[in-house]
Specification:
This protein is mainly beta. It contains one helix and eleven strands. A hairpin with a 3-residue loop joins strand 3 and strand 4.
Length: 162
């Protein structure tokens, strides 16, 4: 909502091993984040696969990448300057615990964020997507995940990379 006061309630910085060029956001009660059927051609193109309790964020590198997660009290302002792409979707968190992990991470050791149980809108903002070196291993790509309580929505590209 433009102009509405927003607060970052919690902020977390991670270095996530994006094995298979992806990392997961998922409810803690879902022990295996299976997105096999969700990684459609369209999902790969938008770098975002979604199922009911799991969100798969695609990355441009199959390496450790910086991920920032911000828990908001309301929808953040739509200021997308500095981002190459922005996607939005929803996730259900009945356990009230969000797991942030690489898809091959050992689940019990993965990062967890305590939240109120319920439905959340997830905005993923991608920057530095075009900064990879010739090997595809080094770059300045970054991933900002913002989530706030909200109604369930279908996955959508809010800003597409050119």
């Amino acid at each position: 909502m433009e102009g509405r006061k927003q607060n970052v309630l919690q902020r977390f910085e991670y270095q996530i091993f994006a094995d298979y060029s992806q990392f997961y956001l998922q409810d803690d009660d879902i022990r295996v984040g299976d997105l096999g059927d969700a990684w459609t051609e369209q999902a790969v193109a938008r770098l975002l696969a979604v199922s009911r309790f799991v969100v798969g964020v695609g990355t441009v590198r199959n390496m450790t990448v910086p991920v920032c997660v911000e828990v908001m009290d309301v929808q953040p302002n739509a200021d997308f300057k500095g981002f190459d792409q922005v996607n939005e979707c929803s996730i259900e968190l009945p356990s009230g615990s969000l797991v942030v992990a690489g898809c091959t991470d050992y689940f019990p050791d993965a990062a967890r964020i305590k939240l109120a149980s319920g439905n959340y809108v997830v905005r993923v903002s991608y920057s530095g997507l075009e900064t990879l070196d010739e090997t595809g291993l080094e770059g300045n790509d970054r991933y900002l995940v913002q989530l706030w309580p909200g109604d369930l929505i279908s996955p959508r590209v809010v800003k597409a990379r050119c």
